[in-house]
From TrEMBL:
It holds the Pfam family Glyco_hydro_20. The active site is at E92 (proton donor). Residues 18-282 form the Glycoside hydrolase family 20 catalytic domain. This is beta-N-acetylhexosaminidase. It catalyses: Hydrolysis of terminal non-reducing N-acetyl-D-hexosamine residues in N-acetyl-beta-D-hexosaminides. It comes from Lithospermum erythrorhizon (Purple gromwell). Residues 1-19 form the signal peptide. It comes from the Eukaryota. The lineage of its organism: Eukaryota, Viridiplantae, Streptophyta, Embryophyta, Tracheophyta. One of its GO terms (biological process) is glycosaminoglycan metabolic process.
Amino acid sequence: MCNPLKGNLLILNLHELAAHTGSWAEAYPEIVTCANMFWYPAGAEWPDRLASEPGTGQLNPLNAKTYEVVKNVIRDVARIFPDPFFHAGADEVIPNCWKTDPSIQSFLANGGSLNQILEKFVNSTLPYIVSLNRMVVYWEDVLLDAEIKVDTSILPNQNVILQTWNNGPNNTKKIVDLGYQVIVSSSEYYYLDCGHGGFLGNDSRYDKPPGTDQGNGGSWCAPFKTWQTIYNYDITYGLTAAEAKLVLGGEVALWSEQADPSVLDSRIWPRASAMAESLWSGNRDEKGVKRYAEATDRLNEWRYRMVNRGIGAEPIQPLWCVRNPGMCNTVQPL
């Protein structure tokens, strides 16, 4: 993750808490709701799903055992990684997954709310992480989700950073307006897994007549994010100078639904390198003009250096273009 403003590198212990915890049920089934259930019941509408993708499972904040397990994991991770940051997740908490649990059903029937359940989880884990001398990073959902979120009063901005992945610069603006520092991981620009089609079976989106829109690659965050798209994104777009100071930097993401070691190098490189130059050195020259044209040659050279070192970085141009600099531009430079 690169920081164009303060010139250092932030390393996170990436860890999902609250949602995306179905795997925890293999060891502690009693603390996980809706584990191993079908994620999108037949005939259900999208709001009635149990997860935003398979598989299912969320920690139960009303179970005291949950905190015994979670705090042990937090403690162990903090011991292993000395970084000053701990990522506590909290994205994509799905209402109906929690609602499958009898204890949560009872809580809601007696006037409780889903927001209160998430607040209980945050109030029980945030102070513990802070006590380990860590700044806590949450996904933006913890404050901006349309259905389950907490109040800013329980997320002190001196201890909390938010990481944004939705809605491009608009959500970045919302976060800094709330006074929080932000890490930008916009899915519209920085998600490296996008554009390779969906991974679900029995998907009717791919059964379209010739001549109709074929879905732009199929995946939810399509199209594929080219290195130019990544390089040209300004993570402080639309912010004032004061607001921009709250933007710590950015992080590209490669989620693993359709990525394993066989494609890892080519999915990451050299696109992550384009992001690194853009954030470390800026994507504009001294006159304020975007410098993606000259960056092409640098990225080509860097890609071949990586290949020579055994990294399977994908090519960004035909070899002929590399051997004939400038001949593959869209227009001849002035």
